[in-house]
């Protein structure tokens, strides 16, 4: 019991993910600033922002909203992201948890933050938040099926395994899945799914500050908004880590391999950052068409190639 609590709360759980996620958020903002010819924030700025919201800023509740749901949504968002992160990082860090079939559980856990954003927005009673929630729901329906197709391709390439630890082991004893044609296609599809899951440009329609003033988060302030920021930090860490696990050979915590693992993680985050800084926001119907038609087609091609061992 004590070991499980340590895994969930400290390493590789909540505390570890929050710190690494905050550092990756700084990296994302620093690269964004450099692309825009700005200096960018100091290293600890994401942590300053979080603690300022948590300890200093006042929490203002919407007058016409369902206050219980409104306050509970960010808590469940952090819980869902943390649980998904624990199931991802335990096998990634070569900690055998004895849990089989975790790939399917991870898929469902990763949907919890997005669903809680929708619940929190709808419970606020704000019409702009409702518009953002509507966009978020449509976006979820668009990319979740595509993300499931990525996992189907990974399962096929791993010999029908739904155990993340076994999937990583298969790559480490052979060739990383990204070293094949189907693996490259699955990686491309996965990157766009991550972009949508993180609500980064070009798929930031649910927030869209210039259109709906923050959308799903328009009514949040103080401690609840700090929790939302924290869930975003955690997701910015665990989603690239998940891509590393299923397509990029995972990690080996020995010698130079530690540096190599860090570089892979940073490279995925850098790619996400460059995409969001070099593309305009698309309309929600364009995003739906993009995933339903083109990205799903790419994923299906990758699955067919994986079946033939390519």
Characterization of the model:
The protein is mostly helical. The protein has one domain. It is built from 13 helices and no strands. Helix 7 runs antiparallel to helix 9 and helix 11 crosses helix 12 (256-277). The longest helix has 31 residues, at 127-157. It is globular. The model has no long low-confidence stretch (mean pLDDT 92).
Question: Which characteristics define this entry?
Answer:
310 residues; mainly alpha; globular
Quick structural summary:
The protein is mostly helical and 310 residues long. The protein contains 13 helices and no strands.
What does the average pLDDT come to? 92
Largest sheet: none
Strand content is under 5%
- CA distance, first residue to last residue: 44 Å
Overall domain count: 1
Shape: globular
Helix content: over 70%
Enumerate the spans where pLDDT stays under 50 for 5 or more consecutive residues: none
Summarize the helix and strand pattern as letters. HHHHHHHHHHHHH
Radius of gyration: 19 Å
Number of beta-strand segments: 0
How would you describe the oligomerization state of the chains in this entry?
single chain
Count of individual helical segments: 13
Structural class: mainly alpha
Topology:
Elements: H1 2-9, H2 14-35, H3 45-55, H4 67-92, H5 102-109, H6 112-122, H7 127-157, H8 164-172, H9 181-197, H10 209-212, H11 222-247, H12 256-277, H13 284-307
């Amino acid at each position: 019991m004590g070991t499980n609590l340590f895994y969930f709360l400290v390493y590789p759980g909540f505390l570890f993910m929050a710190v690494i996620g905050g550092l990756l958020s700084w990296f994302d903002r620093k690269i964004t600033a450099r692309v825009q010819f700005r200096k960018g924030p100091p290293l600890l700025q994401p942590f300053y922002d979080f603690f300022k919201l948590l300890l200093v800023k006042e929490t203002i509740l919407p007058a016409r909203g369902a206050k219980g749901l409104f306050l509970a949504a960010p808590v469940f968002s952090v819980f869902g992201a943390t649980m998904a992160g624990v199931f991802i990082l335990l096998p990634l860090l070569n900690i055998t948890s004895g849990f089989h079939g975790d790939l399917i559980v991870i898929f469902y856990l990763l949907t919890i933050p997005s669903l809680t954003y929708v619940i929190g927005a709808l419970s606020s009673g704000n019409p702009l938040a409702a518009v953002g929630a509507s966009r978020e729901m449509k976006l979820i329906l668009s990319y979740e099926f595509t993300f499931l197709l990525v996992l189907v391709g990974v399962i096929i390439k791993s010999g029908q395994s739904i155990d993340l630890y076994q999937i990583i082991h298969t790559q480490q004893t052979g060739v990383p899945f990204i070293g094949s044609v189907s693996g490259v296609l699955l990686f491309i599809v996965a990157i766009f799914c991550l972009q949508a899951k993180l609500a980064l440009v070009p798929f930031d329609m649910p927030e869209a500050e210039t259109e709906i003033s923050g959308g799903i988060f328009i009514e949040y302030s103080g401690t609840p908004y700090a929790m939302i920021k924290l869930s975003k930090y955690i997701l910015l860490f665990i989603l690239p880590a998940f891509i590393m696990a299923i397509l990029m050979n995972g990690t080996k915590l020995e010698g130079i391999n530690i540096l190599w693992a860090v570089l892979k993680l940073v490279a995925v985050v850098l790619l996400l950052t460059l995409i969001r800084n070099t593309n305009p926001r698309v309309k929600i119907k364009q995003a739906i068409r993009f995933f339903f038609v083109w990205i799903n087609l790419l994923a299906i091609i990758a699955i067919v190639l994986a079946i033939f061992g390519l």
